[in-house]
Task: structure prediction
Amino acid sequence: MTWYDNNWNYRKPITISNIGSTLTDYQVLVTMDTASLVAAGKLLSNCNDIRFTSSDGSALISYWIESGCNTALTKIWVKIPSIANGNNTIYIYYGNSGATSESNYFSTFDIFGNGSSGILTVSSANTIVNNYTYLTGNENSGDNIIAVDSGTGFSNGDEILIVQMQNYSAGTAGQYEFRKILSGEGTTSFTLDTPLKGSYTSGTFNSTNATVTQVVRIPQYTNITINSLASIIAPAWDGYKGGIVIFRANGIITNSGDINVTAKGFRGGLAGTTISWPGDAIGLQGEGTKGKGVGNRFSDPYGGGGAGQQTSSPRNDRSGGGGGGYGTAGSDGIAQTYPEYRGRGGATYGSSDLSTIFFGSGGGGDSRDGPAFFSGNGGGIVIIYSSSINGLITTKGEDGIYNSEGASGGAGGSIFITSVNISSLTTNASYGTGSLAAYCPGGCAGGNGGYGRIRLSANSISGTSDPTAYTTGFDTVHNRKYASPEPSFGVSGAEELNITATLMTLNTNTCAGPCQIIAGVTWQNMGSSSVTFTPAILIDGTTIAYATSNITIGPYPAEGSSTITTPTLLAGTHQICPYPN
Result:
């Protein structure tokens, strides 16, 4: 087998075991005892001379040393091009005193993408950069083929976001993961590069008990420029898809315009349909993670604001709806006279670290304005990975429309930015405000929506956020693939040396009776550093005999000689060769 580079003296095989389907460009965590190698003089104390290759022993593959060089538990992530079902072999090389480190987080995890979509310049408002579809049925953890409504706009090699938008019956609303399409472009069946980690439900749309999973194509840009007055948006959520802007850029994002998904999230509730006063009427709750709302002045635990209610008996009263909830609860609507008829504010859901991600919920409909009037929609979702970003990103809840009873506001949506450098960035996931009533003597009004959620992960962050963002350093945890089940590894096989035999002499290779054979071997070090090893010969392809002492050979082209005696052999002709050969 080919040796990667003669400047390296040692290598070891590593076995990667995969009991699932084939994985591509998959990151595997390898844990090694580098302290022993350093102590033996085989590895530099800073691990700069570590390299990994594929199974051919020569093609380099990306790696990143997470922690612990010169310890018994060094953590190294290795990006393996293909891991088939069963056992797979890669090699670790070491032993080059002049090497510089090639440990690289970004090439191992592709966090900012591969740049395949090129440069993007946005010069007009309302530019859409994503493609959208949705799962037509349920998909289970471990599946690597998914059924979608349409493959239009999706190509082999595209990265996609898979996200559970609504889920009433099973699974986890808000869960998401990233995959690539191996095959199936333009069709309704995508084969994925890695099986799903989670299970996803889909198939009931625009319903009060909805199950919807959306699939979004993720462009891979280099540099992005958004000119003044220009914007990137998403189509509004329609109960099937939309509402999300997501992309990667491995260069710089210069944003003089806006990335804006205000009012693109869960929809506001419909106003009550009885127009006359007095009379009995009630609006609909705002849409949330369960689905569309029903006629109830109480909010549900899924975020949508409660509906305003009008009643003529036993009390004449009317009310605005409650604001939609998300990161914070929406506020209650205001009734004309009796507070019990007010629409209640929507509940909170999700988490500040955006490990699950959601739209903001819609506000509850007011008590009577007819089917043409809705309360405010929630904000959409923005997810961006870029080495540097500035400018304005907005996902506000929609304001309630001024009407006879008071429409409520939607909740802000989600913004998740991962970057090395966030500079002068303004992020806004604030709420939509409820409107005052046009015809309500007691002063009816819709409630305000709740705040959304913002997460910023970067080494340096400057700018303003409304609400206050959840901030972390550059995230190295959530940026890898997860298979189910995960592959395992084992450092297996003997250490191999970059040593060749240039000459071998035998006193005989045929025994008339039981005898011992003496082999003289001249070895040459092909590596760039001195190496100490125990010379050996291989007898009849099965038995290894070692010299009685080690020898040390200087860097290439230095040579060294050894004499090795076999154990007692039976009569006959024997095959003797240097080991390793």
